[in-house]
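Note to self: keep these together.
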Amino acid sequence: MDSKAKEIKRIGITGCAGAIGKCVSVALHKRGHFIRGCDISADGPEIDEYIQADICDLEAMKSFAEGMDIIIHLAAFPNNGNFMEEILEPNFIGGYMIMEAAREANIDLFIGTSSIQVNSGSGFDEKISIDEEAQPVNIYAVSKIYAEALGRMYSNAHDMSVLIVRPGWFLRDKKTRDQFNKSEMSSKFYLSHDDCCRFYIAAVETNSLAKGAYAVLWMMSKGSCVDMDVAKDLIAYEAQDAVGEGSYYDD
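Structure:
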């Protein structure tokens, strides 16, 4: 993954101080891409540029998106929680702000973030297609359905190329790992740190999404309960890690 990309892109990553954000921004930076990160936290990874800003600040997002080829939008409240106090601003209002900023910046590709939780009511007893109807069971999942619909709207109305990613269970820390190990369902939607990086490298470097097109892709490691064929066809992503492999965190 540390070899250099053939074509260097200018990539803006929101939420780059978060667990997935740090992982992805560092991996893409090592590939030689110019990375401008943004997060509400003052502590960001070592990349080309880092901006501390609120995702709900439209003018800040416009400055952040200016001059970028690709926006990877990861900033969000990452769990279920209180709608008014925790989820409304980052997941709904912030999602709109960064998409509007990306539209004004005329970026080539917007990569947004959904979640496996949009289908959490499905039961995961059989392999799930990317086209299966959403089955949310909490307000966080609803915020991710909104993110998918917002991306579709910007693709339809503004001819933006939009790729929405549905990540599996990414082990952010020891607490998350312990929760994962106690879950009977965990092996069905594991996402390793390394496979996560492989996915975004593929999305940036081998993406065949047409101008103005829209797509939703699962992002999982091996042995998942979802159909990964679309990700293989569109961005040439193939998972390499089995459950428990390829993840790193401090104990």
